[in-house]
Amino acid sequence: MNLSLLILLPLLTAIIILLMRNAAQVKWVALAGAALQFVLAFVLLFTFREQRADGNTAQMLFETTYNWFPSWGISFHLGVDGISVAMILLTAFVVIAGVLVSWNVTKMTKEFFFLLILLSLGAYGFFISLDLFILFFFLEIAVIPKYLLIGIWGSGKKEYSANKLALMLMGGSALVLVGMLGIYFSGAERSFDLMKLSQLNISYQTQMICFPLLFVGFGVFTALFPFHTWVPDGHSSAPTAGSMFLAGISMKLGGYGCLRVATYLMPEGAQEYATIIIVLSVIAILYGAFATMMQKDLKYINAYSSVSHCGFVLLGIGMLTKTSMTGAVMQMVSHGLMTALFFAVIGMIYERTHTRQVSEMGGLLKRMPFIISILFIVGLCSLGLPGLSGFVAEMTVFVGSWEHPDTFSRVATILACLSIVVTAVYILRAVTKTAMGPLTTGFENLSDATWNEKLAALILVAGIIAIGIAPFWLNDLIRPGAEIIMQKISIPK
Amino acid sequence: MIEPGLYHMLFLSAALFFIGVYGFFTRRNLVTMLMSIELILNSVNLNFIAFNKYLWYDKLDGLFFTIFIIAIAAAEAAVAIAIIINLYRSHKSIDVENAEELKY
Amino acid sequence: MPNATLILLIILLPLAGFVMLGIYGRKYFQNTSGIIGTTLMLISTVLALYTAYGYFFEYVKVDGVYQPLVPLKYTWLQFSDGVSIDMGIIIDPISVMMLVVVTFISLMVHIYSLGYMKGDERFPTYYAFLGLFTFSMLGLVISSNIFQIYIFWELVGVSSFLLIGYYYDKPSAVAACKKAFIVTRFADVGFLIGILILSFYSRTLDFNTLIERLTSAESTEFKSAVAASFMGISALTWGLVLVFIGGAGKSAMFPLHIWLPDAMEGPTPVSALIHAATMVVAGVFLVARLFPVFAISAPNALSLVGYVGAISALIAAIIACTQTDIKRVLAYSTMSQIGYMMFALGVSKYGGEDGLGYTASMFHLFTHAMFKALLFLGAGAVIHYIHSNEMKDMGGLRKYLPITHITFLIACLAIAGVPPFAGFFSKEEILLAAYQNNTAVYWIALITSGLTAFYMFRLYFGIFWNKEAHAHGEHKNEGGFAMMIPLVLLAVGASAAGFIPFGHFVSSDRTRLETEFHLMFSIAPVALGLAGIFIAMWMYKKQNDRPDKLAASLNGLYKSAYHKFYIDEIYIFITRKIIFNLIGKPAAWFDKNVVDGLMNATGNSTKDISETIKGFQSGKVQSYAIYFLVSIIGLALLFIYIWK
Amino acid sequence: MNDFLTLMKPELVLTGIIFLLLFVKLGKGIKNEPLLLIIQVLLLLNFLSGFFFNEEGTLFDGMYLTTNMIVLQKNILNLSVYLISLLFAGWFKKSEHMPEFFMLMLSALLGMFFLISSGNLLMFFLALELATIPVAAMANFDLDKKRSSEAAMKMILSSAFSSGILLFGISLVYGATGSISFAEIPLLLYGTPLEILALVFLFGAFAFKLSIVPFHLWTADVYEGAPMATTSFLSVVSKGAVAFVFMATLYKVFQPMETVWYNMLMILSIATMIIGNLFALRQQNIKRFLAFSSIAQVGFIMVGISSSHPVEGVTSVVYFILIYIFSNLAAFGVAAAIASQTNKEEIDDYKGLYKTNPFLSWVLALALFSLAGIPPTAGFFGKLFLLTAGASKGSYLFITITALNMIISLYYYLRVIRSVFMEKNEKPIEKIKIEPSAKLALIICGAAIVLIGLLSWIYDYIQSLI
Questions:
Q1: What are the tens digits of pLDDT across the range C233-243?
Q2: Are D and A neighbours with ≥3 CB pairs closer than 8 A?
Q3: CA distance linking residue C330 with residue C272, whole number of Å
Q4: Going by CATH, does the domain composed of B6-103 fall within 1.10.287.130?
Q5: pTM of the predicted structure, to 2 decimals
Q6: Do B102 and D154 touch (CB under 8 A)?
Q7: Which of A318, A457, C551, D35 has the most neighbouring CB atoms within 10 Å?
Q8: Which residue ranges make up each domain of chain A?
Q9: Which domain covers residue D182, as residue numbers?
């Protein structure tokens, strides 16, 4: 199949949305677009598996190249491997759910959905691009929609958060830019093409300079400690769909970049800096978890827990084993679905109770069984219950990390393992307080989820359970990609 | 009585240049500032002529340049004067320090 | 060869129940859900019995050894070559035995709940959760892969969480379910790390391969696992100890037992099923599953198991003597009995006669399931009748609850180890094993058995005799057949189960183990048991002040025992004071003020700088010119003299 | 004679227009509207003719030289003047001195044309003056406004001063080399102290025109005081022209002293970006704000120039300036449309603008994003290519500072976006009726901002002309 469909479809949707007259039309167009994306993603998945089944072992499938600024060695080079396919699926899931939950946005509906779709465009483009330049292009495309989404439709200190988010992400991409140029000029031939760059090996000095630039740059997107501070504010003041996209998709851009660009192109740099990455990610995991324990606001709780969970992604990457790398990608997918669902649920609760303070809620299970059951599911997923996606991903990371025999990585892994207790603590505190206990007065006549909310939740739950019960398909999808990324890296046994 | 050489000329022009600059920096009256600019331009003229006379006497570029500079200076002065007059109309003064509304 | 699909059915039927009732129960099966759940459970029980029969009797042993079979195995998640989570079924004596126990008790509880939970608005949810739990527990016992067991381990944990928190509008229930989950979760981390260690060295997650590799002294895996050591203890021992910590958490071994008494907040049948008969013995089962590795390769780890078990048994027994909430008394007695099973394993060795402890432990597990479930269900009947858990509200109930009374008495006799009831036999074997291998443990065990008899009959007399009875209003009956049938069936089990020649089926090396009965040996424990019973009778049969006198006379011990030796308080101190205040709060503060502060500071400082340098733009055209000239000269100097 | 006509085509056309205006003025026959229309048409024709029958060559023995690239540059300037004439149509029609204004503006443009194709220091000097002096007069065109005349005064005085400096530099060059023709000078330069001094002086003059820090101080005041049309002309056309010629001079004339001016560029561009950004942070007046932002932009242009690569450097700079022209004109156009009806020039006045004027808001947003270098706007590509060109010298620190400056600039651009889109305002600017021609220009700019980047053949076309 032609991958540029993945870019054209959202683009088309966005344009049509701009042409629509009234809000209702806009919504339906957006939904149709999202649904088409969903279908397209699955078509991609199946064709991909088909190709692989037919023994097509090319590293990238469906490669297409269009000339674009040839004089700079830039080409519009698209292609996917298992990892990208997984991320694309994730995006499709989150997008359709996001569109559904924001069904009753009344303020500037057209612009809202336009930006949502634009965001998805950026994500798809990022995941399928095999050329550093367009990768960067799509990475930055995704920034401004987030800014506007938070700033216009947000709540609380939205301007501040929006600014912070935009600036920190831009800072990240600035570092990425520098690292990118470093790579560009390092090679024998000037090219932004990932595949080409991965062939000609980059000099050690360049790697030592460019790897940290790229890794930290992308790391900012995926809440690398200490550059995670945009996460809590951004998520908590964003509108529901906004938070879903932020945590579900946009944080994954960073992880994917760390993998596909930093680690893949500069294995030596990765090995040199692995220790630092591991330390930072373990800090992020534990410290994020403990910080979460102290939060009172549901959105803050999920935001900080995202910091902790994305720590697993970075840990998986930093450990530099095939398994841990696979686990990192799985964690990206699983966390994307899970956190999107979590934000969706929080949004639903907020719409009804008009508060996000855990202390002000109680016994909601009586009034809204569906929503709260979903809350339970997502909570359990977040604390890594088997049968849901979180468990699979985290365990893969752990097993992968444990493949290092040296004490340092052992300690790191054990510390990371300990975080699952803390996770259990804060998740249970939040969930039980909200759902169980006596019903708070004033919430007697709250209504349960509406059709769109139910649909959104069920789609994401389906994803979570599908991974949780049958992780092997995701594993088979991701592992080969991870192995290719790892091929230049050898672990001391 | 010694024949003045290139360096005398250059020294003279430099002096003239810096006198002009000094005037431009210190004078408050716009017209005087304009005059000090003329001084600067004249020092440049001197330079050209000197170089032409002592170094490149087989060329005429310097001389032509001088002529053009004089012409341009005139044009510049004309426009400047016009502007100053207009400034006087609006500010009722041609003191540079009265026209410091735009700042920071 | 047992049929894989049948065994799958055993497991999947309860799951089906869960899914169906969980999703559609509230809509369609508000009243019928109980019947549905029970029927499904019945079917799987029958299948389980059939399987057991097939395995133990029809299937021909290879030279007298029950072969462990793996009729089903599916690679679920491939980590690296060799290391993969497989979803499989392992069929060997203990798993079959557990299948029977779990399905049977679960069925009893299902039936019982028909009466006990009648009219509850979340009736379907209740049965859904029961189904989920049964599924997870069955999955746990037939796991063929150590990671698979971990998976189901977590699942039983969560289903117990759900069931403890079943009365979710009771704050105490909510607290209890949280506590149960978190404490066991904490232990599970140990389990997880243990798994990681074992799998790393044995380069497999499959039980059979793992055991085989780690028990054969010449295999490379074994060598590496023993060679690698941390703090002077071999990696293998570490791994097993950590795994055992997981087991201790689930089985409420000291000091991880604190969640069990609170777990009694759940509906009483649930306590009977989860917190008496099945889930809490998962730890014992886990150790038994890995027993060869423990026994052959890491005797230190095994002896640790033994001591932890013994201590838990004793402490629990002491505490049980002082509690007044009947369910809590039962909870502590459960803990104490599991302690028995643990140290029975701990004192056992691998193979032949020395493997007596193993057999005994499994045997006790089996009998204990019977009488403890019976006790809980009986207590349930009482509570159902009185609407209170407190002993002081009870007394003289034998008139009103005759059947309950009889069955309860049988159960008490069984647990007290009075012949010929089930408990006697199993306990004898345990004591014998302890006597043969470890006298210290033996003496603890002996004392404990005395205490057991005492507190059980304290309970019995407190409920059914003691003060004069006063009729309780609403329902005169004992809760109808639904509640009585299980009691009777279990009573039969509790009295008859002891005569099963258990060693023929279950033994450490799966051979036939003859357990002969020494009269002389069993005098001491029986005598102690009877003594306990008589003291209890003397103190509690009639209402009198002897208990208070006694309590007063050994004041300190009584108080500390009454307050469960302040272990809860210690935990609360650690969590609240240390973890929350010393780690959580600082972390949050640090994030808010330092990290975030830095980010904002950069922004603000930029603004400040721009404010301070605005003076350059003075609006004076002359100063502009001065800057112009100065910078020209500066550049000239720089490039002529400095930066050549 | 014939090649005289073809080579000097653009200049001749302009001169024609200027004379036409002169006669019209003398005859005082025609109203503003038709006259404006005629001018626009003629400019457009001149622009279009720039694409046909061009020849490369020199005139007046090397004093005047033209190449395809130079023609393109002239065309770009011409186009931007055309856009200005569209954007400020409303203002032009009102003012009774429109013909004079155009005379001045066009003669300035003419000066710039000569500037670009000057092959000789004398020519260069004359052209520069021709390009500067009329602008000073243009700055004074709000005759009744105090600020306007102050701005004009500052402009003329400081530019006179700078031309004094420039001349001094030129005289030194002459003294050192004995030649004033661009073709000969590089052969005679050896990097002696005197020559460095001369270079510094010339550099200073250029820096003044380009408003490079620390020679930029006049910029903001003049921009703020001058009428909007003049400001946009200054910020777009004259900047562009000087940038072109600056680049050409450095590459061609001072080629032997490359290391010196590379370091100079590096220092000054860092200073320019930082100072420009820091000042832009705290501006309230939109014109002043745009002034400082354009200073920062010049810093980026210098990064591109510093690459000193005859192909990449030139192409990326020209490409960037093309984009910059559209972006800046769009921003100024919106500001002008608002100011001309409400006299509101403060950023805070723009609060809630989106509610009332979505079109203007979107154009403004596009323009600012393009200036900030956010994809998919063209600014992103422009900036990125500048950086890439600059990075080819491999100074990581330099590039990192540049990249980080993009963040600061983003901050203040977002400030405007925020007040336009997010902040509440009880009495926002009322619905504004935009001149059709202005609207056309805005649409052109918007389209250009979106398309120039995505259509990569534009870049290739520019490169093909070298």
A1: 888 888 899 99
A2: yes
A3: 10
A4: no
A5: 0.91
A6: yes
A7: A318
A8: 5-486
A9: 2-464
